[in-house]
Recover the amino acids of this structure.
């Protein structure tokens, strides 16, 4: 009998986006482009008498940096599926910082729950549930669709069943720094911010990684979301000719190439990632 099931989902850094309203959760979401990254969320799930969720942020040496109890989106899923489990999610990247950790936590948790309880949910079922939880709790718009697979992603329609273009020929690392959390719901609930975002949005899909950073930077500048800290770090990247932009939505930035690591190290802890080759998936079932 299986005791613990573990699953993993990569994160997603959005470069530019536009919200699309819908009459239902499945019809709502966003269009835009981003990078699915190798860092993400691992969920461990065991059956329990009472549903409980623990969220952990882990140092590189595997020690616990931060720990929080409870997750309304994951608890919403357990109630909807009528199951009771103890879920522990672990990530290295900052939470509420534009790395798609909410979507990754949902996708990895539902994947593990599906295997543990033998629910026979398809990949599309899992993605649909995670997307619904994101929309209901205003924690994200398009990360779930992106994290169904890897690569540099361009989503031309909202929801999880839209056409998605993926480029995998990204050879150099993605590095990022974060200056603090940004509440996604605060931005999504701001009519002024969403109007600026809508006006800043480009309908183009990137031709390559450099075009992606150009489009993302133009969007970041026009959206008016760039903080003073992010602006200073972007200027340092510009001085070195390094492609960089703001993480959406987070008070931080991400950049491309080996040289970016040294430049970003001036501003805090640098998270170095690769472009993910795959999306969310089961890791193991432990007796």
């Amino acid at each position: 009998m299986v005791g613990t099931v573990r699953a993993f989902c990569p994160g997603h850094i959005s470069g530019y986006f536009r919200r699309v309203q819908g009459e239902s959760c499945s019809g709502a979401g966003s269009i835009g482009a981003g990078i699915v990254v190798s860092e993400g969320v691992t969920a461990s799930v065991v059956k329990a008498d009472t549903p409980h969720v623990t969220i952990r942020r882990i140092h590189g040496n595997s020690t616990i940096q931060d720990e929080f109890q409870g997750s309304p989106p994951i608890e919403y899923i357990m109630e909807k599926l009528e199951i009771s489990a103890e879920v522990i999610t672990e990530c290295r990247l900052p939470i509420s910082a534009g790395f798609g950790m909410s979507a990754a936590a949902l996708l990895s948790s539902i994947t593990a729950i599906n295997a543990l309880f033998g629910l026979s949910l398809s990949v599309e079922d899992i993605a649909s549930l995670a997307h619904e939880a994101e929309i209901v709790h205003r924690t994200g718009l398009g990360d779930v669709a992106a994290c169904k697979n890897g690569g540099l992603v361009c989503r031309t329609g909202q929801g999880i069943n839209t056409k998605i273009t993926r480029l995998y020929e990204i050879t150099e690392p993605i590095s990022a720094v974060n200056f603090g959390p940004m509440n996604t719901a605060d931005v999504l609930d701001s009519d002024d911010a969403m109007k600026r975002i809508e006006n800043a949005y480009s309908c183009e899909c990137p031709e390559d990684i450099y075009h992606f950073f150009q489009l993302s930077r133009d969007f970041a500048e026009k959206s008016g979301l760039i903080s003073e800290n992010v602006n200073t770090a972007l200027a340092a990247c510009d001085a070195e000719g390094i492609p960089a932009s703001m993480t959406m939505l987070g008070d931080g930035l991400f950049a491309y190439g080996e040289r970016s690591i040294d430049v970003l190290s001036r501003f805090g802890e640098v998270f170095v990632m690769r472009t993910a080759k795959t999306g969310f998936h089961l890791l193991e079932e432990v007796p």
User: Anything to note?
Assistant: The domain at 168-273 is CATH 3.30.70.890 (Alpha-Beta Plaits). The mean pLDDT is 93. Residues 58 and 64 are 5 Å apart (CA to CA). The chain has two domains: 4-164+277-286, 168-273.
